[in-house]
Structure of S8 family serine peptidase:
Amino acid sequence: MDAEPPLEPDAVPERRPLPERRYTGRVVVVLADRVPLDDTGDLVEHGERNGDLLGPLVGYLRANGVRTHRLVTGVALADLLRAEEEARDSPFPPLQSLARYWVVEAEGSGKGPQEVARELQGLEEGREPASRGVAQAYAETVVGDPRTAAVAPLTASTGQGWLAPRPRGVDAFHAWEQPGGRGEGVRVVDVEQGWELAHPDIDGMVGPPLVGVNRFTLDPAEGSHGTSVLGLVAGRVNGRGGSGLAGALAEVAVCSHFDGQTDGDVVNAVLVAREHLSPGDVLLLEVDRPGDGYLCVETDDAVYAAVRLASAKGIVVVEAAGNGAEDLSAWTGPTGRRLSRDDRDLDSGAILVGAAHGEVVTDPAGPVEGHRWNAGALSNYGVRVDCYCWGGSVVAPLAVGYGAFGGTSAAAAIVAGVAAVVQGMQRAAGGPPLGPLDVRALLAHPGGTPQVPVASSFRIGRMPDLALIAGMLPVLSS
């Protein structure tokens, strides 16, 4: 198990050296609300139809010879607009239509994406506010799996403690004794970029990606992360390795944010998953932003909008908080957006998951047992993080065999399984599918296993307790 000494409440971990900001080569251009929408797929053509607002933009695009296309390509424009219209009466109405998001490929201009973004944004300087057609332009940063360094070798018996009753684990054993306690009737989609779908723990369980390319088919090194995630969520019990939490799901599917050229296609992966899922199903985001300090993926405005659309449909989105040892409460985006549950415009509806150590410790300030924030995994933290689970001492299937898995990747996978089990028990008890806010409240319930020390500055919430939650079901209105 974990052998690190107890972490003092305000001890600052040694963070991994942050890389220079890395970009996909794409610039995202967001058109102002005053620009009429149409169905064209080319930004120059669209701009020519609205020359009074987009004339400078058209001139720039022509002069620099860059290619453009809509950001959303995974679903039809009509389907996107219909989804946004349906979301208007939900707790998560769209703040800006994703139909206004375009991609400018910086390649071909002879300039870097940062320079192109600055120049595009600068086109509006000096223009009257009512004449400005470009609301925002930003260089898209690289995304990836929320990876952490491997830990000491584990066995199935030592790496499955997260299944145990509290305070050690989420108490899967209690849930498995309840009707629906293995996720019966619930569907889960995992968004990342690579899986070994022929692994014995998941073989025959998952089909090819609903969208994007399985990166494992191009590079075997890209398969372990996704395989581990699926194993924790729903891996079969076969006597070879660990046990998945929700082993009786109606369906497990995957969406890749790698389109064969760029790994930044998260928005389309989320939207395709949203189309595939129904209210009460679970969407797992196993993505963070290594190109931007390892922040959670919804710090990108377009991804945030897509996640809100999924939440508006009633889908439970579980999102890795990321492995940058950053305070998500302190983050502010270029437009001033923050991450907060207290303001509905700043809340995606997702369940953000932090990582803790597997070892149970006692708070030196009082007789409280729980888990320490995982400094070794560099889990992001802050009041926006809803709950935590093990981010170390976890065994999971790899592309070949089994091994250690950790960080917010492992924690989010376990919590996605918890969410599916909660929905399964709710269904079996005769209740309606629980909405995202209901599930988030149950998983973050103050009766769950606390973080220790309770006074820690690195707040990651509480670990869900399935025995506690089972006693609260069914919730009769959602």
Observations:
- The chain has two domains: 23-141, 161-470.
- The radius of gyration is 22 Å.
